[in-house]
């Protein structure tokens, strides 16, 4: 039986285990690639917006080629030109630096007193802007609502029993 040419070998696609580490100044994508060598991997950036990680190797057992291709859309707050990759101990670590987020102006959230009635002029807008920045999951919001109801009913119970 004649041997197959390397280009005629069948491929087996697989999805490698990937793990994100979110840090303040960068994100790190760790791709676990047992049995791969550095020379069999490729990391590219397309159009400064898509990170492509791919690899291909020959399987030892059945002569098939094993390959993967993973594309990740980069967030807008990253530096595509400063992305670096390191392959060590079967783990490909790709560091994606973030652009510095603009600092919020402290005077933006300050409450100023009104001369007219000595109550904060920006009180309502200050509370509204602070609350607008908070993001809750549905579960957190429900848990907070339940806790608020329990607190209110407990206070009502104490007031009613104190009158007796």
Automatic annotation (TrEMBL):
InterPro entries, per this entry? A-crystallin/Hsp20_dom (IPR002068), HSP20-like_chaperone (IPR008978), Small_HSP (IPR031107)
Q: Where is the SHSP domain?
A: 8-114
Give the residue spans that cross the bilayer. 141-159
Keywords per UniProt: Membrane, Stress response, Transmembrane, Transmembrane helix
Instruction: Name the PROSITE patterns for this protein.
Output: SHSP
Similarity remark:
Belongs to the small heat shock protein (HSP20) family.
- Name of the protein: 17.4 kDa class I heat shock protein-like
Q: Source species, please?
A: Cucurbita maxima (Pumpkin)
Q: Which gene encodes it?
A: LOC111492817
């Amino acid at each position: 039986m004649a041997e197959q040419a390397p280009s005629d070998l069948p491929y087996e696609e697989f999805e490698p285990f990937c793990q994100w580490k979110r840090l303040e100044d960068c994100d790190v994508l760790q791709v676990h690639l047992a049995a791969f060598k550095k020379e069999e991997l490729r990391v590219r950036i397309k159009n400064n917006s898509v990170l492509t990680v791919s690899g291909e190797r020959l399987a030892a057992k059945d002569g098939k080629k094993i390959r993967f291709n993973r594309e990740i859309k980069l967030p807008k707050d990253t530096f595509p030109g400063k992305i670096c990759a390191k392959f060590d101990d079967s783990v490909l670590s790709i560091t994606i630096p973030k652009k510095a987020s603009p600092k919020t102006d402290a005077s933006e959230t300050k409450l100023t007193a009104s001369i007219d009635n000595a109550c904060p002029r920006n009180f309502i807008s200050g509370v509204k802007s602070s609350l607008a920045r908070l993001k809750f999951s549905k579960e957190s919001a429900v848990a907070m609502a339940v806790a608020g109801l329990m607190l209110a009913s407990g206070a009502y119970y104490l007031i009613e029993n104190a009158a007796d």
